[in-house]
Structures are given as structure tokens and as C-alpha cells.
Amino acid sequence: MRKIFRKVAGIATLATLLFHLLSCSSSGSKGGGEKSTDDSAVEVGILHSLSGTMAISEVSLRDVLLMGIEEINAAGGVLGKKIVPKVVDPVSDSDLFAEKAKELLSKDKVSVVFGCWTSVSRKSVLPVFEEYKGLLFYPVQYEGQECSPNIIYTGATPNQQLIPAAQYLMSEEGGSYKKFYLLGTDYVFPRTANTILKNYLLAQGVPADNIIEEYTPFHHQDYQTIVSKIKRFAASGNACVLSTINGDSNVPFYKEFINQGLSAAACPVMAFSVAEDELRAMDTEYLVGHLAAWNYFETVDTPANKRFVESFKNYCKANNLPAGTDRVTDDPICWSYTGIYLWKKAVEKAGSFDVEKVVAALSDMEIESPGGIVKMHVDNHHLAKPALIGEIRADGQFDIIWKTTGLVIPEPFSEFAK
Predict the structure, then answer these.
(1) pTM
(2) Contact between 263 and 289 (Cβ < 8 Å)
(3) Is the pLDDT of residue 415 over 50?
(4) Mean pLDDT of 184-195
């Protein structure tokens, strides 16, 4: 096989953009349920789906957060307090996410929450965190067009994932692709992501006839018709798929791709929501050569990442978690783990669990993540980090075939989201 080279509408006016950025710079009133100084523990919330269609992705985020908490507690905790996790399961239901978030903030009075995966779940809880002045660390790549004073976005913005992937595929190194099939799950992230991708491609001179956009519901299983359309679309060559399919629908999609004789050589899939953890449920032998755009892969070759990967595998084995030492790390797992250490560092810098003080301490903060040194933006609550392209291997890992030079500054509001 030949070598494959390689998420709410845009802001209408500058005034609106400035308003959003100013909102991000101010962190609101005190909140998050800071407890009295004589308490021996501080409670934090973990808000991830442990059942339902998104469990395939979110269970591991709970696991790595619990590992991070165990590590921090073993090293003395935070400001002399042990972290006590409050884990809740919103069962992949966006309405339940809001309900559970309200309980964590108003009843349990947690100091911070780590959670959500889909944009619809994040948007469901956003007004809750703003009303109760809580703090959410959100670890997944998303469509941007948002900046809340009560959310820390450690996942990628469009210019840190979507745009680099498109640029790569259009480049000579990436294969000089000229036809793009935009396929996603029918909710906020894929629709806004595809608006950004489509407008970017059009701005680069790609004819409108060379761009197809299609969506399926959550937990969709029958991709026979769609893959048949992709096959016809790719028959003349120079075609690729930009996939924002989320959750367990990825398994039947790639399986149907294989069943109809499509390969990475004929039509590569560039995925924005498939990483090592999802690949554990797939026959990766047949996915060799397909691509994914992230800001971290397990194969990042640094001592810090090797320690992280080994620690996660050992933690899963020691706690009798499914798959034990066969567990993998991936991008959202990395940024979940990084998030809890960012919070710890900010709390210690602020000398307080108060949300306003913690958010202020996070501004411009650097930290060594498993993927290398990353840095919080000075005012927009997002994380600067490198962008990477990976190629799927038969063992379910990725070869990193391209990366940016240095950190990509996060731009939550895309000029192409119109």
C-alpha cells in the first residue's frame, strides 16, 4: 500500500468578539463551594458518562482523573487537604448532565468539576456553572465559538485541530487531496466543525461540488448507504473523508468502510473524534493508514509521556479495571490528566480554592503535560499546545507523521464559522 501522506455560528461583529473575550478575562463571583480552613479534605466532581453511547470514550477520563487524584493525595494533597472525588454518571444524556452538575455545585458544593465530552453536554451545563459560579475543566476538542468565565477548555480549538488537518491533506506532503466528504454525528460539534471546514476549503479554492456534508444520529449503526456514496465520490480519486462521528458509531462506520473494499490508499479518513481508546474496540488491522488529528498521541516520545503511559496501565491493573495493562492513553485522557494538575497548581499559586482566585492564577500558566510543555492563554481560558497528525498502525497506535513547530495559540472564535 502506498504511503499516505499526509464544533453556534461565527461572531458577527468585532464588538461581539471583544465582549466574549472580556467575559473570559473576568472570572465572576466567588464560587465552587470553598470549604472552611479546618476541613481535612476538598471535594471535586467528576462528570462523565459511564454508560450509554459515550461510555466508550468517557470511562477512561474518569479513570485517569482518579489516578491523578491518587497521585496528588499520595504527595500530600492540595493545600494540605486530601482530594475526595464525587463521581456521577449522566448516562450520555445532555439534560442529565445539567441536573448532575447542579447537584455537584449546590448540594455537594464541590470546589471544581472535571467532565463532559460532547458539546451538547458542555452547553447543557454551561449556564449551571455560570449561575452557581462553579468551575468546569473541559478536556475535549470542540467547535469553539464559546468562552465562558466558568470553563477551562483544555481540548483543542478549531485552529488547533480542524484547520491544521485540512491544511495537511491539501498539501503535497499530505496527498494533495481535492475532494472532501464531511461526515459527522448530528449535534453541535460536527455541524459547527463542518461549517468551519467547508468555509475554509472554499476559501482555499476547493469547488463547492467537491465538498459533501452528511450527518447521522448518535448511536447510528447502519452505514451501508453512506459508505456507498463515499465510494462513488472517491471513484475518480483525490478524495478523503473528514470524520466527526462520535461515540460507538465509529465501530460500524469503519467496519462498513472495510466491507465495501475502501482503504486508506483509496480514500483516507481523517478523524477528529477517534483516538487510541476508541480503536481498542475496532479491528485495527484493517484501518492501517487512516488518519487522526489530535494534540497528543500515546506514541509521543518523551520521558514524561512514557511515565504517564506506564502509570495509567499500572493503575488500571492495580484497580482491576477492564483490560488492565492493555489500556491506552489518548488526547482527551491526556488533557483530563493535565487539567487536574493545572487546577492543583493554580490552587497552590492562589493559596485558595476560591474559583475567582483559581481562574486568575491559571492565566498564562505553563505546565508539563504528558505531551510536553503547554501554556494557558493569558485571558481566553484555552490551552496553547502543538497540533499533530497520526496514522493508524495495526496495533491500534498511531505513528506521528506531522506536527506543528511549537505551540499553536488557541483561537476559540474562528473566522470561518459563518
Answers:
(1) 0.89
(2) yes
(3) yes
(4) 96
118 neighbors 48 (Cβ within 8 angstroms): no
Strand-strand pairing, 82-88 and 41-47: parallel
Q: How far apart are CA 356 and CA 376, in angstroms?
A: 16
pLDDT of res. 323: 87
Other residues' Cβ atoms within 10 Å of the Cβ of residue 320? 7
With cell 510536553, the residue in question is 372
CA 230 to CA 38: how far, in whole Å?
62
Q: How far is CA 226 from CA 182, 215, 216, 330, 415, in A?
A: 11, 10, 10, 28, 30
| pLDDT value of position 127 | 98
Chain position carrying cell 487536574:
340
Q: Which amino acid is at 247?
A: G
pLDDT, tens only, 364-387: 999 999 999 999 999 999 999 999
Return the C-alpha cell found at 264: 486508506
Cα dist from 329 to 57, 167, 305, 320, whole Å: 11, 26, 10, 17
d(CA 275, CA 45): 25
**Euclidean distance between CA atoms 51 and 208, whole angstroms:** 40
- For the stretch 161-177, pLDDT in tens is 999 999 999 999 999 99
CA pseudo-torsion sign 243, 302, 77, 35: negative
HSE-CB of 255 using CA atoms within 13 angstroms: 12
pLDDT digits (tens, 9 = 90+) for 216-261: 999 999 999 999 999 999 999 999 999 999 988 999 999 999 999 9
Q: What is the pLDDT of residues 9-31, one digit of tens each?
A: 333 333 333 334 444 444 443 44
In 3D space, the residue among 370, 354, 325, 389 whose CA is nearest the CA of residue 112 turns out to be 354
Distance CA(147)–CA(404), nearest Å, equals: 24
